[in-house]
Amino acid sequence: MTYLQSVVHDGMEPVLTYFDATYVTGTYRAIRRVTTAQTPRRRRFRRCPPLFPIQTWNVFDATLNNQARTNNLCESWNNGFSQLVGHDHPSVWLLIDAMRKDAVMSITDIERDGRGEAPRKRVKKVTRALQLRLQRICVARRDNQKTVAQTLSAAGHTIRFA
Question: I need a surface site. Which of 50, 105, 152, 161 has the fewest CB within 10 A?
Answer without folding.
Answer: 161
